[in-house]
Amino acid sequence: MESLLKLLSPYELRARTLPGMLLIAPVIALFTGLIPMAHSWQAMTAIVVGWFAIGYPIGQWMRDIAQPQQAALFTGWGGAPTTQLLRWSNPSVSDQEKEVARASVLRLGEFKWLTQEQERANPGEADAHLKTVVGAILAAARRHPEQYERMDRASAHFGFQRNCFYSRSVGSIIAAVSAILSGACLVLPGLPVDATLVILADGFCLAMLLFWTTGVSARRLRVSGDAFAMEVFHHLPTFVENRRGPGASS
Asked: Which pTM was predicted?
């Protein structure tokens, strides 16, 4: 039951299952358009169930490709977005907001968050302390996801963008080949196909090709990473409050 709930969790569906389903969507569309028996309700139900069942492990495969490359990605960005946002040198959040957040975190007595002067003198040490804070927030979100819903959605969207980004070449090839095959079925004589359905399938494959070539990009990936980082910052008060426990004085 626990495994099933994890499989159907919003994060799993958005970040892992959906990329896999999108990767094979052109093949599903091609099959549905070309096979006459696939148009009954029973067959359509079986196709959708099979699409999900195949899409999930493919999504896991896409995640396995993307995850090892995340460290290099963050290095190229100058650090993880969550760490960058908390740096004094990052202008996305005002110094005043960071001062308030820093004071609340330091009152917990468990973490360090260096001053602006200390960060300039030793940026590596400053980042190490910020990573510890972020890691604690992420761990708390895994234990109490109901209290970090917006952050979880932002994390899922980043996971979706990342997993799609590192499989965009494969997705483009699948979509292009499926579009070519469906187009060929329209011009080859004697094939027992419904021209309207094949045209719809071909149009869908071309739309998916457009998605993989323009909708998945380094810029969109970075935007999703920054959005997740902002949600982590906005959940700092929730993290501090829970860490202190009920009845703690201000």
From this structure: 0.88
